[in-house]
Amino acid sequence: MTGNKFNGITRFLKRKRSFCALLLAMIFLFTTSIAAYALQAEAPTANPPAGTYGGTQNVELKTETVAASVYYTTNGSEPTTGSTLYTNPIAVASNMTIKAIAVKDGMENSSVSTFEYVLFAGGSGTETDPYQVATAEQLNNVRNYLDKHFIQTADIDLGVEPYNTGAGWEPIGNDLSPFTGTFDGKGNTISKLTINRSTTNYVGLFGFTGVEAEIKNVKLEETNVTGSFYTGGLVGWNCNGTITDSYAIGAVAGDYFVGGLVGVNNNGAITNSYATGAVAGDFAVGGLVGLNSNKQYGNETITDSYASGNVTGTKSVGGLVGDNYNGAITNSYATGNVEGTEGVGGLVGYNGGVITNAYAIGVVIGTSNVGGLVGNNNNGTVTASFWDTDTSGTDSSLGGDGAIGKNTTDMNLQGNYEGWNFDKVWGINDSDNNRYPFLRWQGYKHVQTHALNITASTSGSITTGTSGNYLAGTDIAIAAKPASGYSFNKWTSTGGGTFANANNASTTYTMPANPATITATFTPTGNGSGGGTSGGGGGSSTSTTPSGTQVTPSGRTASQNGVTLTFPAGAVESDIRVQVKEAGLTTGMTLPENSQLLSRIMDIIKDKSGNFLKPVTITLSFDNSGLNPNEYDIAIYYYDEDTGKWIALDNIRLNFDTGTISGDTTHFTKFAVIATPKAIKEEKPAKPVTPQPTVNIPSDISGHWAKDSIMKLINAGVISGYPDGTFKPDKTITRAEFTVMLVKALNLETKVGKTFTDTISHWAKDSISTAAAHGIISGYDENTFSPDDLITREQAAIIIARAAQLETATDELIFTDSQAISPWAKPGVAAAFNSRFITGYPDNSFRPQGNTTRAEAVSLILKVI
């Protein structure tokens, strides 16, 4: 039985042998794979995990593999066993990328773990929770988040390595990657900004700020910035961004487009900002902004800002702005000295834009186109803006009637800045800003005082009121007392101001915004001791019992009874005595028809007969209330007793506002101020008005940068739109079309000029022939004009330069692609550029072989006419 059982088991095992082998193989493979897996170390983890943090983080690294070591890097490179061995927490105080591996003998190294940390002093970079910047390193981190929002929470010193050595600070943003976020300095300072990059463009704390960028409350101090093109202390190129309540103090130097605060302000807005420090460059150099440019966007403005540093350059050099090319400057000023060669202005070197309510006081030195306010003005507009003729060293400026030169004394008086807002924008006082106007946000108090002299004529005295300095608008109590034999007449003023009642001896006077003198005048109460008769005609009035004022051959000025008499030296041969008394209208004394008597009739007598050897000036006061000086002629008249007529004196000088008038006479008699109606000019019949045809605005130019220019030429009949009601402003234009537009715009006299082989039967042949006869266009050769070729930008520039009769220039062009301009075209392109007929693109290229659009052609032609 036992043997049978054993044999049965043996047979069973034989049958199952293949199954057992398979099972054993599977167990072996499973255990082998488990062993292989267990031989790789666990990848490290980090605490705190990767992310954005508002302050320094102490990062701990660990692995779940027992007795494994962790190696790591912080510079972005792959870690190996030769990297730093982790022993203590890693202090992360700035942006940092940590890479780590776990290593253990007998096991494979773990996979690489990567942990990225973004570090600021706080915040998350949103508009409502901006990143907080408190250190130089954190400020340097801004460049990695160009579209985020930032606030500065502490003063930052950039005078430390690596920011103050070698090339120094690397500007934040460039033309390819501009800063488009916001940065609020919160009034904290950034000091010792150092940039030494003389071959680099777009240089400043920020190299390039783009659309929607906003910089405010930034205070740069002790700057030392050097760049090439587009260099400024704060921003190299501001394109559509806003800068407010910011300043830069320190030196800035570059080549082209250099400003103390901003190199180029291209469609940007700068408000309540300033720069102080030396600025040096070559072309378009300004104390605040180098170039304020590009009207096609329509927003480039500088408002409520100033510059006080000295500026040196070659061409287009200004105390505030070097080149105001279609920009706007309002409520701004410059105080620094300006030196250059061509286009040098105390405020603006070259102006093709708008200047309103601005002034300059610095010394201006140059060779050509030099002005106390504006050096070169090309279709620019200047309104209510001033320069100091004493301090600038020049009494000339371009800018038309709106550019006004005044001496230092007048520049220090508020009343001379007509139309300026001294309630909210401007201020002036006797101590701050060297007594020149300042901007209210500068923090000075608007407390300017003006001298008031309170006087009385010899027939009375002042009993209330003290001469001295008073604020404009101050009400001053005054009173006068007549001498014996006189009664009070009225108060008069030189310098303006208002009396509560000028006819009352006791009244109040309101101080104007300039120096003034007020005088109390008196009238005799009796006939006096004079008596006498009046001579008629050209005779003289004499008194047999003279009293009053003695006049000698050396001359004098005397005032009696409200009348001032000025005797020049040599008017009399010997001493005489003169008396003035009120006469009044007598029977038979008739005033001129429809006239008004504006003063008392004064009888002036002397003790000797005969006319004066030289004219004597008589000054009278008159009542200017209720009279329109535009409707009446006002003069001093004398009464001719022989003819019974009133005759006007010669050389009348009228000050209607103060109610005083002067005239010259060679004899004495009765005198009065009389107003006579002005002669009514006969109006010519109006010319019949010819109805003008209604001009429809093309449907596709609304909002286009050239809309206004297009409509001007459409209204002038120079161009027209397409039948579908469009203009297609961005469509390219042919050589023939450009020529026809130019001939029409310039209204050129039709002439027979060159007829090219390919224009004989062309629709524009007459215009092409006329333009050729005037020397404006030429062909590719003697026979070829190629009228249907698209006109290139360099060709258009040459034609415009010829049409404007510009002198060719040899200046080296500043465009980045200048080498692409054809050699034959360079002199004309340079001439057109120097005269601001053409400009480059925002990237400083000219693209000479590019084609001109219809809108660009309109803009070019409009500049010529």
CATH architecture of the largest domain: 3 Solenoid
Bulk shape: flat
Distance between the termini: 133 Å
* CATH class division of the largest domain: Mainly Beta
Structural class: mainly beta
Which bin fits the share of residues in helices?
10-25%
Mean pLDDT: 85
Poorly predicted spans? 29-37, 526-546, 680-691
- Kindly identify the CATH topology of the largest domain: Pectate Lyase C-like
Strand content: 25-35%
Strand count, sense and barrel status of the largest sheet are: 23 strands, parallel
State the domain count: 6
Total strands: the figure is: 66
Count helical runs.
Answer: 10
Rg = 43 Å
What's the layout of helices and strands?
Layout: H1 2-38, E1 45-47, E2 51-53, E3 57-62, E4 69-73, E5 84-85, E6 90-92, E7 96-103, E8 113-119, E9 131-133, H2 136-141, E10 149-152, E11 156-157, E12 182-184, E13 189-191, E14 194-196, E15 206-209, E16 214-216, E17 219-226, E18 231-232, E19 235-239, E20 242-244, E21 247-253, E22 256-259, E23 262-266, E24 269-271, E25 274-276, E26 279-280, E27 283-286, E28 289-293, E29 301-303, E30 306-307, E31 311-312, E32 315-318, E33 321-325, E34 328-334, E35 338-339, E36 342-345, E37 348-351, E38 354-360, E39 364-365, E40 368-371, E41 374-377, E42 381-383, E43 385-388, H3 389-392, E44 403-406, H4 408-411, E45 426-427, E46 438-439, E47 449-456, E48 460-464, E49 468-471, E50 475-482, E51 486-494, E52 498-499, E53 506-510, E54 516-524, E55 549-551, E56 556-560, E57 563-567, E58 576-582, E59 596-597, E60 602-606, E61 616-621, E62 632-640, E63 645-648, E64 650-655, E65 660-665, E66 670-677, H5 707-715, H6 735-746, H7 765-773, H8 793-803, H9 826-834, H10 854-864
Parallel strand pairs: 2-8, 9-10, 10-12, 11-13, 12-16, 13-17, 14-17, 15-19, 16-20, 17-21, 18-22, 19-23, 20-24, 21-25, 21-26, 22-27, 23-28, 24-29, 25-30, 26-31, 27-32, 28-33, 29-34, 30-34, 31-35, 32-36, 33-37, 34-38, 35-39, 36-40, 37-41, 38-42, 38-43, 43-44, 47-54
Antiparallel strand pairs: 1-3, 3-6, 4-5, 4-7, 7-8, 45-46, 47-49, 48-50, 50-53, 51-54, 52-53, 55-58, 56-57, 57-61, 58-60, 59-66, 60-66, 61-65, 62-63, 62-66, 64-65
